[in-house]
Amino acid sequence: MFPLLALPIAYILGSIPSAVWVAKIYKDMDIREYGSKNAGLTNVFRVLGWKPAIPVILIDLSKGYFAVFIAQMLDYPQTYEWLPVTAGLLAVFGHSFTCMAGFKGGKGVLTSLGVFLALQPFLAITCFALWGILFAASMYVSVASIGACAMLAVLATLGFASDILPIYKSDIYVLILSWLVSVFVIVKHRANMVRLWNGTENGFGKKRKK
Tens of pLDDT along 126-151? Predict the structure, then answer.
């Protein structure tokens, strides 16, 4: 049963409220009371700038990566094939529903990227590249994040179902995780989608809309 300790560890790692703690240390403020009131990287960048955003990026990526890495190390040799992906999912849930900050956190994009960097790095890098392209084209973080998550599920499905894209070859557990994470993160962006539809979403380099 020792490998199963990876699951609470993953949730606790994911629950580290990097945006809340960094904003508190950097400016002695609760980031959840400013800007979009979201405890995530984008709000930290908008409210406080790029310097405090850097540690938030590093911490959120590391949370997802090490949640999976620890599960892989504890489950060696492999006994519970589902353990690393479950740990990754718990890290994402922990980020979004952190027990260290009133169960209110970010949307889980960076933590999800860290999870897939550990599980399927080529898949993660491709989706991150698409995120960059979509962001550069639209200047909306929400558009880039939604598009990258949709691509995650599509590529994971193609990699599992055929040999057309062997670089994305994955097992059933990674496939299930990709769909769960994609749907979860996209649903977390539902308010952004409403604002995009109404033309009131705030983009970088754009005049702030009310």
Answer: 999 999 999 999 999 999 999 999 99
